[in-house]
Write a structure and sequence with these properties.
CATH superfamily of the largest domain: Glycogen Phosphorylase B
Domain Glycosyl transferase family 28 C-terminal: 189-355
GO molecular function, one term: transferase activity
Structural class: alpha/beta
Pathway: Cell wall biogenesis; peptidoglycan biosynthesis
Shape: elongated
Radius of gyration: 22 Å
Strand order of the largest sheet: 3-2-1-4-5-6-7
Subcellular location: Cell membrane
Binding site for UDP-N-acetyl-alpha-D-glucosamine: 10-12, 124, 196, 299
Largest sheet: 7 strands, parallel
Order of helices and strands: EHEHEHEHEHEEHHEHEHEHEHEHEHHH
């Protein structure tokens, strides 16, 4: 099978696409890929690290207010459709997969015009503008959160698939996570993370809470500041008038996050959809601080979905402090019954077979398209 993947801007759009590719490669090693990304997104640093052919388009998103820039966006979209058509006609894919971000728009729309089967994957509980637009044109819409299927009323077919990133992380080795952290296997680990860049509000609350983690001496805190905030956090800790707690590990970034996640008993984080898929695939309780600075406040909707099912405690950023964070952490760490119940609820929400569900749908779409071309349907 020949597959075009497109998704860009953030890791939350890129890693699900790569997880789908990984599953397809596992099922059929002879599968061929082309990844089409935007010129400005993280895909430019992430995708080239794979052995996948990579092409880019110059594409931007619409501003939500009246702006002359929107005229440029329309022109870039039309040019993007033409460029995508040329790439698709040259590569001749059996199916095109979009996992979000502005770049999906022209690529998936061009595939529709060329009558190539298409699937888009929506990571969030509230769909993005690009996927809303594309849903009426694609063969299948796959959603991460069960119950959000009705968000795409104009789609031909909507399926609950979960997030394919869950499949990748579900395979992670906890023993390797403990080894990477230099901890003995079975050490209770609380992972604090704000994403690859970091989250200022989480960092501030964590720095306020640091002096109190000595009240949990058997628990090891892995505090991932994000690259942007590492030097500032390190300096604050070094200049503080108290001794650094021995049960604190401060890092700018974790290269092998799946293994570290697998070794964790509790996660404190934002509520990006792909990261939540990773957390639930491993059945980890979470304290979530959704970012208020995202479109449609979708992170809070993501987080509340876990909270409603008993898998997470949610703290709104406006209510976040060292004290409120400490209360939430102690509530989970010190109550084994609550922790085990949250872990069970988290695992029930996890969908570790997500990538396999999506790739099965892709094969069906490809087979049907081939049958139509042969005149068998």
């Amino acid at each position: 099978m020949r597959v075009v993947l497109t998704g860009g801007g953030t890791g939350g759009h890129i890693y699900p696409a790569l997880a789908i590719a990984e599953q397809l490669k596992t099922d059929r090693p002879d599968t061929e890929f082309l990844y089409i990304g935007g010129k400005r997104g993280l895909e430019n640093s992430i995708v080239p690290e794979t052995d996948m052919p990579f092409e880019t388009l110059d594409i931007t998103g619409f501003r939500r207010s009246l702006s002359a820039d929107n005229i440029k966006t329309v022109l870039r979209f039309l040019k993007g459709v033409q460029a995508s058509s040329e790439l698709l006609e040259k590569f001749k894919p059996d199916v095109v997969v979009g996992t979000g971000g502005y770049v999906c728009g022209p690529v998936v729309y061009a595939a529709h015009k060329l009558r190539i089967p298409t699937l888009i994957h929506e990571q969030n509980a509230i769909p993005g503008l690009t996927n809303r637009f594309l849903s009426r044109y694609v063969s299948t819409v796959a959603v991460s959160f069960d119950g959000t299927q009705d968000q795409f009323p104009k789609a031909k077919r909507v399926m609950y698939s979960g997030n394919p990133r869950a499949t990748t992380v579900h395979r992670a080795n906890a023993a390797e996570g403990f080894r990477l952290l230099g901890l003995s296997q079975g050490t209770p680990v609380v992972l604090v993370v704000g994403g690859s860049i970091g989250a200022k509000a989480i960092n501030e609350a964590m720095l306020q809470m640091v002096t109190d983690i000595v009240r949990m001496p058997d628990v090891h805190f892995v505090y991932v500041t994000g690259k942007r905030y590492y030097e500032e956090a390190k300096r604050s800790l070094e200049e503080a008038p108290w001794v650094m707690p021995s049960n604190l590990h401060v890092l700018p970034y974790v290269e092998r996050m799946p293994e570290v996640l697998a070794a964790s008993m509790l996660v404190i984080s934002r509520a990006g959809a792909s990261f939540l898929a990773e957390v639930t695939s491993l059945g980890i309780p979470a304290v979530l601080i959704p970012s208020p600075n995202v479109t449609n406040n979708h992170q809070e909707v993501n987080a509340r979905a876990l909270e409603d099912d008993g898998a997470a405690i949610v703290i709104a950023e406006r209510d976040l402090s060292g004290e409120s964070l400490l209360r939430a952490v102690e509530a989970v760490v010190q109550d084994e019954y609550l922790r085990l119940r949250m872990a069970e609820c988290s695992a029930r929400l996890g969908k570790p077979d997500s990538a396999a569900v999506i790739t099965a749908e892709l094969r069906k779409l490809a087979v049907r398209a081939q049958a139509i071309r042969r005149g068998a349907l």
